[in-house]
Design brief:
32% helix, five-stranded mixed sheet, EC 3.1.3.25, 273 residues, 28% strand, Inositol_monoP_metal-BS, 7 helices, hydrolase, Fructose-1,6-Bisphosphatase, Chain A, domain 1, Inositol-1-monophosphatase, eight-stranded mixed sheet, D-Maltodextrin-Binding Protein, domain 2, metal-binding
């Protein structure tokens, strides 16, 4: 008999195991492949981590759907189910950083249920292997960093905030609203940072290292775990329209503390509309 829902121990062990597998490749020689459509690169470490995660999940939860960055959606559930268990996986977020020997990358895994195309995370974890940093959140039970509960930043002045964003795969005209927003936020805040791994940026926002994060377009595996971390740490997460965020349906995400959210959201809204 298989378990119906994963627990904290299973997810933490799984994500640490996947993270450890990436370290076998980090700062060594490995195969790099360019994705089609100028969408960046993928390495053999990405594939190894993803296969490891999927195999472990399927062994214990054979009827759970898995949405993963490199292999897409693998459907195990029956088509007549209105609500079905779903895993959303980024086996290595920050692949460009990883390929250059930059330690700012992570593994991101979320589990929840999908109903009518909307995903609700129940548990999520983000792990940075190079610093052994483990973030975990469970719906209604808070967010934790290496076992200790953490909370969103309580900073009240936007001018003293550090905000993070990213370029994603934006090119050409898509860079215009992005660069306008970067200029506006840089002028209003202590500083804006671009680190190259959206999931890890979300984890740092949940921990209070960053006071806000926004980016578009992102994929479900970039945001599924991180959005739960922030919500359970006391933060606000919306899409670019200011509505409830759904990792599967929304490509843009805005997240920060309740104290700073309105100013961040309004600054972004002006430059993207």
């Amino acid at each position: 008999m298989t378990e119906k829902q994963p627990n904290k121990e299973f997810l933490e062990q799984l994500i640490q195991k996947a993270g450890a597998s990436t370290l076998h490749y980090f700062q060594k020689n490995f195969i790099i492949t360019e994705k089609s459509g100028d969408q960046g690169i993928v390495t053999e470490a990405d594939f190894h981590s993803e296969n490891l995660i999927k195999n472990e999940i399927h062994a214990l939860f054979p009827d759970h759907d898995i949405l993963a960055e490199e292999s897409g959606l693998t459907k195990y559930s029956t088509l007549n189910e209105n609500t079905f268990p779903t895993w959303i996986i980024d086996p290595l977020d920050g692949t460009t950083n990883f390929s250059k020997g930059n330690p700012y990358y992570c593994v991101s895994i979320a589990f929840g249920y999908t109903t009518n195309g909307r995903f609700k995370a129940q548990i999520g974890a983000i792990y940075q292997p190079t610093t052994n940093s483990l973030y975990f959140a469970e719906k209604g039970k808070g967010t934790f960093f290496n076992g200790n509960q953490i909370y969103i930043s309580q900073l009240k002045e936007f001018r003293m905030a550090s905000i993070t964003t990213g370029f994603s795969s934006n090119k050409g005209d898509a860079l215009v609203p992005l660069t306008k927003t970067i200029l506006a936020i840089q002028n209003k805040s202590l500083g804006l940072r671009i680190n190259g791994a959206a999931a890890l940026d979300l984890a740092h926002t949940a921990r209070g290292i960053s006071q806000g994060f926004y980016e578009t377009p992102l994929a479900p595996w970039d945001t599924a775990a991180g959005s739960l971390l922030i919500e359970e740490a006391g933060g606000i997460v919306t899409n670019f329209a200011g509505k409830e965020f759904c990792p599967i349906q929304d490509r843009g995400i805005i997240a920060s503390s309740p104290q700073l959210f309105d100013e961040l959201f309004n600054t972004i809204k002006i430059n993207y509309h």
